[in-house]
Design goal:
The structure holds 2 protein chains of 2 kinds. Chain A is mainly α. Chain A contains 17 helices and no strands. The radius of gyration of chain A is 30 Å and the shape is globular. Chain A starts with 26 loop residues before the first helix and ends with a helix. Chain B is mainly alpha-helical. Chain B folds into 2 domains: 37 residues; 255 residues, MetI-like fold. Helices cover 65% and strands 4% of the residues of chain B. In chain B, helix 3 packs across helix 8, helix 3 packs antiparallel against helix 11 and helix 4 packs across helix 8. Chain B is globular. The chains are: A mainly alpha, B mainly alpha.
Chain lengths: 435, 403
């Protein structure tokens, strides 16, 4: 079959030049052939997708951008200006979407909290931060930040015990007891006593700080709304349910303590079996019934309690997965060097177990963030409910698409970036396991 | 505390409190006491509060007349029915949307999951957009979105517009897509359909027995038998015979559009559709990812081994990839099914009368929150335990394949 016209040439051994592959086997043509047109059904798929894109994308882009109205006074004004989306609605209502009914002169307060949270978060997440910085940042986030954030967001919080004389005396007694214990602990070099003393001091200091609340104006929790409320609910329930979940997971594995074990199993399985909305109903309708007469929680706190309990149960299962992946030898190693249960958990098991389940924890974060939208059903003004209310406003009625699209975009940005982070982490951890 | 005692140089006490077992018992008694104390405290507060607000307690209210109507129901229900019947209607509606949703979500999820692994770059990218877009938007928002879309004036007509000359035309002659729901023809109720159902069940058992026999014969003698097609044949035959024997009904009820109401046929309400679409689409995005990672978890060598011993690609899929992928897929799939069922409770936002929605109405009418919430939780607990048991049983069967 050799054609005579094909130029042939002989080269000395080892001198054959590098020839390019034929044009159909390289570059964009190869890619097209292999990835789009390699068989009749793939070609069909390509054509179908292209057709869908042709039908769907231009009108969508027109609606989203080209025909959209960016400035408007009300819905009629919008419709008069163009037939695309009315983003003027969002820009006019932007602050309401972000802060709800929060006092407009105090917007700087949540802004600071958010900025600090983002900055410290980046510091912790960024892989090249020196370990000691990370340590201090985490300590700051756990022990100082919550109370500062509370003071900034809400202002002073009143405790009945703080105002009364007997309460003050009790506090003073606890405080001095704490100082005494801590001093004694330092003297005798006893970690347990020292810890007890320091925590008593810490509790009283926190109470004092929270009552003072940075001396700012009080903001009722009813005024929280929009993205602010969504974030407060999500971040708080995430950060409280993680330690609670760890405790539940450890309790579930405590084979020597059957009562504790079955209590934890019961809590975990009960709350994992029921939908969040029933837990929220329970929180809103039952907590007022459970409290003694005269005491009341507002709905935000009730919802938060419901979300925390619910998410702790899920978090416990995520953590349990990590605990099960740790080889038995690690537990035994902790025991054999004489660590007690808590030290062995803190120093040996947990660092390894939590590292494995970081992707799972991030997925939980995403789920919690999305689930926080359920509070709109029980009447809290999270960002979804703000959108629902805004589109019933007579000035903006009929703009549900714009409202929901904006809320969807906000949720999507947060959740997608978290899921990308989790995938990156997973690859990172994979690499570490390989060597 | 034990360390504190040692550190302080306290002289040796009775050995027993250092004993781990004794400590364990003590701690557990303490925990139990605290839990019992808290529960008792909350309970006594609740009783006192209910007494003060003149709320009756107990489950007697279940026997009283409910007094509210329910839009869609699988059993006979009227406002004169009892609360217990109302809750039961809600339970059936939850099951309906959950079962249809699970089937659809599985189907879409598997298709999208396989398409995610397509060699076709465009298809794979489109599917990845589908998954990443829908997974990261709250399902509640998606349900509200679908409800707005279906009931919006921009897209669908109202039934009356079909009566107008030059108005919209029904699809396939008698399927009406309207803002008030989808109206479509359905076979009229007849004992023959029950016969067909019984036939179907008999057929399934028959096909299963046939498959077992065929497998045993192949193991013994090596002779193959087209068990799949024969099974399908048995299935179709039994169903057909059941249908014929019980009277072979063929009457179809067509929806007829009137000026004010639609009669006959079957109706799918906008609430049901919105909930179904929202749940299905959202869950299918998760299932797609589960299927994708399940298939990817099968080592490449397994497929190459299949090719090396000369198996057809379809046989490799059925006998090599799927059995191994399913082991990875089933556990997370189970939790997605449960999530879908639990998320069906979000119907309360669009007004589809399922369990939570009806319990919520009950709760606000009677004020008996603890009872209503308890019933809700017990029902969900039962659903979730049943699903877990079924899926665990299936999972155990699959795991046995491992040698």
């Amino acid at each position: 079959m050799m054609d005579a016209k094909v130029p042939t040439q002989t080269y000395p051994v080892g001198q054959h030049p590098q020839l390019k592959p034929p044009p159909t086997e390289r570059g964009i043509i190869k890619w097209l052939r292999e990835r789009l047109l390699n068989s009749w059904y793939n070609t069909l798929g390509t054509l179908l997708v292209l057709y869908l894109a042709y039908v769907g994308i231009p009108p969508l882009l027109d609606w989203l951008f080209f025909d959209a109205v960016w400035e408007a006074k009300n819905n009629k004004d919008c419709w008069a200006q163009g037939k695309g989306a009315c983003w003027g609605f969002i820009s006019k209502r932007f602050l309401f979407f972000m802060y709800g009914f929060y006092d407009s002169e105090s917007y700087w307060r949540p802004n600071i909290v958010g900025a600090v949270l983002v900055a410290t978060g980046i510091l912790v997440v960024f892989p090249r931060t020196p370990a000691i910085w990370k340590r201090y940042t985490v300590m700051f986030l756990i022990f100082v930040f919550p109370w500062v954030a509370l003071g900034l967001l809400v202002g002073p919080v009143r405790f009945t015990s703080w105002d009364s004389t007997s309460g003050q005396i009790t506090n003073a007694l606890i405080f001095s007891g704490g100082v005494l214990l801590a001093w004694r602990g330092y003297k005798t070099n006893n970690a347990m006593t020292r810890l007890l003393g320091l925590s008593l001091i810490y509790i009283i200091l926190v109470m004092a700080f929270v009552t003072w609340g940075l001396g700012l104006k009080e903001q009722p929790s009813r005024s929280f709304g929009g993205l602010l409320l969504t974030l407060v609910l999500a971040v708080t329930s995430i950060s409280v349910s993680l330690p609670l979940g760890i405790m539940l997971a450890l309790g579930r594995r405590a084979d020597g303590l059957p009562v504790l074990k079955y209590f934890c199993i019961g809590v975990i399985e009960l709350f994992r079996a029921v939908p969040l909305i029933t837990v929220l109903f329970m929180a809103v309708f039952m907590i007022p019934l459970f409290l003694p007469q005269g005491m009341s929680f507002d709905d935000v706190i009730s919802a938060l309690i419901g979300m925390i309990i619910f998410n702790s149960a899920y978090m416990a299962e995520v953590v349990r997965g990590g605990l099960q992946a740790i080889p038995r030898g690690q537990y035994e190693a902790g025991d054999s060097i004489g660590l007690n249960f808590f030290s062995s958990m803190r120093l040996v098991v947990m660092p390894q177990a939590l590292k494995i389940v970081i992707p799972g924890i991030v997925s939980m974060f995403i789920a919690i963030f999305k689930d926080s939208s359920l509070v709109s059903i029980i009447g809290l003004f999270d960002i979804l409910n703000v959108a629902k209310t805004s589109i019933t406003d007579t000035k903006w009625i009929g703009l549900e698409w714009e409202g929901y699209a904006f809320v969807a975009l906000v949720f999507w940005i947060f959740c997608f970036s978290m899921s990308r982070y989790s995938q990156w982490l997973e690859r990172q951890l994979d690499r570490e396991h390989r060597n | 505390m034990v360390d504190a005692a040692v550190g302080a140089g306290v002289p040796k006490r009775a050995r027993s409190i250092y004993d781990k077992e004794v400590q364990g018992v003590v701690w557990q008694v303490v925990v139990l006491a605290i839990v019992a104390g808290v529960v008792y405290y909350l309970y006594s507060n609740m009783v006192a509060n209910q007494a003060r607000q003149n709320i009756t307690t107990g489950f007697d209210y279940l026997g009283r007349e409910a007094g509210f109507g329910i839009g869609e129901s699988w059993t006979t229900y009227s406002p004169a029915s009892t609360y217990a019947q109302a809750v039961f209607v809600g339970f059936l509606n939850t099951l309906a949307v959950a079962i249809v949703g699970v089937v659809l979500a599985t189907f879409i999820g598997i298709s999208v999951g396989i398409a995610l692994l397509s060699r076709n770059w465009l298809v794979a990218k489109l599917m990845s957009v589908y998954v990443n877009l829908l997974r990261n938007i709250p399902v509640l928002l998606q349900i509200i979105f679908w409800h707005t879309l279906i009931t919006s004036e921009r897209f669908l007509p109202i039934p009356r517009e079909f009566l107008v000359e030059n108005g919209p035309q029904p699809l396939l002659g008698s399927v009406y897509f309207t803002r008030r729901g989808i109206f479509m023809p359905i076979f009229e109720g007849h004992i023959g359909w029950l016969g067909a159902l019984v036939g179907l069940i008999v057929g399934i058992i028959g096909a299963w027995l046939l498959a077992r026999w065929a497998k045993r014969r192949m193991d013994d003698t090596g002779q193959q038998f087209p068990a799949f097609w024969a099974g399908i044949g048995v299935l179709a035959m039994c169903t057909f015979v059941g249908w014929i024997v019980m009277g072979a009904p063929t009457t179809v009820s067509y929806p007829s559009i009137g000026r004010f109401r639609v009669s006959g046929g079957m109706t799918m309400t906008p609430e049901f559709l919105a909930l179904l679409l929202g749940l299905t689409v959202y869950t299918s995005a998760f299932i797609a990812d589960i299927v994708r990672s399940g298939i990817l978890s099968v080592p490449k060598g397994q497929i190459e081994a299949g090719r090396a011993i000369g198996l057809k690609e379809s046989v490799i899929m059925r006998k090599v990839i799927l059995p191994q992928a399913l082991r990875v897929i089933i556990p997370p799939l189970t939790s997605q099914y449960l999530n879908l069922t639990k998320n069906s409770s979000l119907a309360v936002a669009v007004g589809y009368p399922e369990l939570v929605s009806i319990s919520n109405t009950t709760l606000s009418q009677t004020g008996q929150a603890p009872e209503a919430i308890l019933i809700m939780m017990i029902v969900y607990l039962a659903i979730s335990i049943t699903t877990s048991l079924l899926m665990n049983w299936y999972n155990a069967r699959i795991q046995l394949v491992e040698r």
